[in-house]
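hey so i finaly got around to running the thing on Hydroxyacid dehydrogenase from Catenulispora yoronensis. pasting the sequence first so u can double check i didnt mess up the copy paste, my clipboard has been acting weird all day
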Amino acid sequence: MAGRPAAVLAMRPDVADAAFPAAAQALLDTLVDIDHGLAVTDFSDPRARAALAGAELLLTGWGCPVLDAQVLDAAPKLRAVVHAAGSVKHHLSTDFWTRGILVSSAAQANAYPVAQFTVSVILLSGKRVFEMARQYSDGAFKKSSTSPRFGNTGRTVGVIGASRIGRLVVPMLVREGFEVLVADPTVTAAEAAALATGPVRLVGLEELLRSSDVVTVHAPSLPETHHLLDDARLALMRDGSVLVNTARGTLVDTDALVRHCSSGRIDAFLDVTDPEPLPPGHPLFLLPNVVVTPHLAGAMGTEVAELGGFAIAEVRRYVEGVPLLGAVREDDLARIA
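ok and heres what it spat out for the 3d tokens, dont ask me to read them lol
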């Protein structure tokens, strides 16, 4: 079709294959002129350089190189970057935002797998599944328990951050019967209560930590949220409570968390850490009441196609001149992951 804008894939080849399977490629071909055999991970490559020179759109994803001034100078026709993943902070340089280029992120599509993962972990942690599985592997078998340490009935979950993911987690938790507390300085009590039909209450961070059986973190990583959960705040958590972090590792003081978990006073499930990855033999790997997973809550495997589908819908909006649903602006960077 004549007049289609030129587009280039800038991501790892395996990511391109997962995000844009055959049917998705066929749909993209109706919207843009694109070489599906070229997935750029190095903009200095001659083939990539030639494609970049004529590109009006970049479809980016995991493995995209940084779009710095030099790259942007080599792409004089670039008008939009559509990211088939979550955060755009890793590949858009400071120079990028002075060029007037549209940006879209599929963070909205990536939020649901994270929320689903988080709620699953919370439910399993209430049954002390991770602790009991480790004890079972060591020879201890317990079919049931009447201890009040076990179970999800009557529990309170504190959600730190009414972010895109936090706003999905809250109604999921309410549907599971939890009382939910929310701490977020950017929302009002009425806005927090409107997140779900059920017991949701806005409180201060310290009150949330003192009152929750499970604390789940969904705040962005910003200078002001670095070590948001430091030694003093972790000390406020109830004995026997659980910390779940599927947001960013830097939100939690790792050394302080090791101390609190080493005492057995609190448990932790961490999908993100600081540093990331943790070095082999790190204490968090060795503690029986801590589970660490390798940053896998977001879209994986078959879920990656959902990110690609969102990106294609954004390309269609761009071609049709409709505002982008996942638009990201420079002033958004101060409040997003």
